[in-house]
# Entry
Amino acid sequence: MEPPATPRSLVELLRKSIISAIGQTAGAGTNQWRVVVVDQPSLKIISTVLKMPAILEQNVLAVQLITKNRQPYPDVDAIYVLVPCAESIAHVIDDFTPTSDPPLRAKYARAHLYFTGALSDPLFSKLSASAAAPYIKGIAELYIEYNPIESRVFLTTPSERPFFTLYSPSAAEMRSKDIEASADRVLSVVASLGIHPYVRYYRPPGSATTPAETMANCLQSKLDEYCAHERRKAENYKEKQTADLQTSTVIVLDRSVDIYAPLIHEFAYQAMVHDLIDLESGDRYVYSTTAANGEVQRTEAELAEATDPLWAKLRHQHISHVSQTLVKCLDQLVSENVGIKALASLSKRPTLNEMRAALAELPEFKRLQSSYALHIDLASKCLEISKERRLALLSDFEKELIAHSADNVDETSEEALLEPRLIALLDDRTLGVTDRIRLLFLYIVHVNGGIASDRRRLEEVPQCLTDNDKRAAANLCLLGIPTKVEHQSDVRSSSRTRYTWETIDRHDQDELGPRFVPAVKSVVSEHIAGTLSTEMFPWVQQAPPEGIPKHILNTNATSLR
# Structure
């Protein structure tokens, strides 16, 4: 049984948009069978939320890739779901341009064109003037250019090397393209949600233009174009716009707002799995199981919110709570399973109905039992790796580091005593190489870069940093951490230009003490309360008028963790 869809789930919105587009093409009195034609990018989008059987159930004969040689269906309508680019438009025109040598008629009876994003005026004009125009029975923009990896999480960065693309001085051209593509993805989410938000972004005072600022301006430009386009299509747009503005804000951040988060060790189940376990394709866990005959089998499981209810339930829990929850749930599963109870009483000569009930329950029991076995194995492996790498010890020091403000660090302060303990951990060969490098980087961020000569001295302590690692430490300056400073006074003054927040929540305790608070949680909380600095988080255009709420989240919502 799949978990119920989350309200406003991005996965459900995307799925419904695609299914609705396919279903709308079935008209009364026409051939109900259709062919779906896609390009590679649109196929990737569709595949994230729909399996092939779900598409074929919509009276679809076949799903064809537009770049391949395809079987013609001259008496069947084609539904095109394409990215709005010149190459895809050219393929559509070719499909409906008859040829005499060899004699070929149009591939399909009619064309229903759906584009994943906005179709530009030049491409629209090219279609209108082409031989395909008489065959086109409709054109619509779906705005589905986003990849929802969870019900409320989607990916914006198209690059495989986002840090290089967004921050490297030598990647200006790539950065511009990636930010443009990222803005298109956010626009698709905005359009799918049916909102028209205000936009604000992170910009530390006195800093150069940040990726967040560039992205926010690009997004605002696309929003303006989209709204003008929608205004032309809908006469009642102004009324709709006013209602939507009451609850809509997009806050654009980049990694420089919180460099602690990717470095610190977290003990929430999902965080540990992605940090410690080598997953295939980002979400597939491969493990070994033993069959009834004693044979060891290789098992692959997808850790996905939509297909694994137990993962959805456990992922935000502390790892120690996960173990307790699994034991409790497994005991409950056994005690409440009708089939197990019936089989346990077979000696009492059960009736046929009782045996039928037992057999009916067993397949579901086995499926659930398999799910529990998966997470017992996965949680156990996380705990085992954590113990081997002594992550609890590292976590204590990490939290102590980030709980102190870099402004107070000097040679005589209590915080300065942290360095000898840092050196002892960096020099501890029983700790993993990656963990020691992460700890060093965390300290560099904590002291806001510190003095360059001190950083170079600390880099030699672990005796495991490569030249690339040292360059990466120096390149923290691209994230706003000064790494070429030679005087302590310059370190202190530059740290005051960055966003600061309560990094440790002493009211949210687990077995390892108070928990780390990511900056994004603090930013959203301050935004909801109306206390977020407009100097550090300015609005792209005007701020919302007085009396209109400035937040998009319900203050009674669940934890942002």
Summary: The longest helix spans residues 352-388.
